[in-house]
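Hey team,

Sharing the EAL domain-containing protein run so nobody has to redo it. Sequence (235 residues) first:
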Amino acid sequence: MIRFWGQSKFSVDPLKPVGCELFLREKIGDSWVLPDDFAQFPPQQIADLLLQTVPVLSKDLKNVSINLDPEQFIDPEFCAVLSEVKNQLLPVTLEVELTEHDSKFPVNSSEIQTAAKHFFEAGIDLIMDDVGSGSNQIDRTLLLNPYISEYKFAIQNFRKTRSLTSIIHSLSFWCELAAKNNKLFTVEGVESKTDLQLLINYRVNLLQGFGLARPVFLPIQAERSRRAVLPFTQK
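Structure output:
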């Protein structure tokens, strides 16, 4: 059994939930876990789960995003089925986040670029997830720039146990690149009021992190007894 868990994305001014990132989880025994192999779930199964899940979200949310690893991203069937369901999700907008994960088998730059072009032509917004981490370095980002609408910078990938001020150079670089290329800029991994206060000095469009809202289980239509709790209460 698979379900989505959801974590809200917040606008900066005012600070309120405006979107939701969906994380696929698999039930093993009594626990919901990160699947060992996402390839075991065909594109149509993911699309069907989207259609069952999005209606339980708060109507205040404007968009939802799902993560695709490079192998999924270059699979033409994913673009095809997501193109079919995106209009059924309206007025909620569907977005795709290309993860920074290293590929289990070789995926070349040409395949990534071609897939990005197809999503773009299908009217599906693309998000470069965790820029500066894993495979989503500057070369791939610039290659896909014509098709990307948003960069996401994951604080947690850089600072680990360090303070946010220790990664200012990396944060500034990606913030400036987003502004230069007219992309939305999201900072994820926001954990405290101190983080928020520091980020005021940067051109940040969206925020995400445990300090604002943690991921929560999302029922599907057949399971719900009430509307899911998104958007979340701020902490």
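The mean pLDDT is 90.

Ping me if you want the raw files.
A.
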